[in-house]
């Protein structure tokens, strides 16, 4: 990143999602000097992304010429500038040299595309993976749970495979619409979550397994209060059914709440889950952009 004749003292990194954004002010050592979280995600900021960044800098009492590196949906077709995907053959350590300059001192990180028979994409997770690489995780599977849960295989710091599961989106959609929605208002229940994981082990087609959630309730086999946790276990368990054939050890990058759920599921499948703090990972990635 060439922002000026001399290296910048600080960089502001923005993890810019659809609904929310997180900002981190980083020094060259990767130390986080300030952070900010708000609801100015892509949907709220568009089409005034440049002004939104200026307002963010003002809110953090930072100079307007502070270099900004944004990742996530800001680089999508619906974002500030659509940044072409990199092919997964491009190693993660090359990301700092592949930024799109959207405006003076404003840069966007490209996502990755897996082509061929199993097409897949990511936008935003690549920055977290760069951070994992900076922290020494350059081989093996990494899971990044969320709206779209990403399972990524790394080899020598390069992406070998991407597998995306619509776990979070399905859970939210089913909870808001359709015949399952009225059943999904119950509290979290650990036993029901485990039962959902066990149901995923049956490897039934997902649409069939989802209907069986309703069938369990209306037949009296399961209390309606357990349906929400059962569904959560079923969807997360579906990811691990595939994962158990891939590796016995996986690193995860997610919030503490999601980490707890994924750790329970991993243990049920005999998989060791190593937790990587998402803030630490993102800051470690940003330090790589000082070069």
UniProtKB/TrEMBL annotation:
Keywords: Kinase, Transferase. InterPro entries: ATPase_NBD, DGOK, DGOK_C, DGOK_N. Gene3D superfamilies: 2-keto-3-deoxy-galactonokinase, C-terminal domain, 2-keto-3-deoxy-galactonokinase, substrate binding domain. It holds the Pfam family DGOK. The keyword Kinase applies. The keyword Kinase applies. One of its GO terms (biological process) is D-galactonate catabolic process. GO terms for molecular function: 2-dehydro-3-deoxygalactonokinase activity. Signal peptide: none annotated. It comes from the Bacteria. This is 2-dehydro-3-deoxygalactonokinase. It comes from Pseudoduganella guangdongensis.
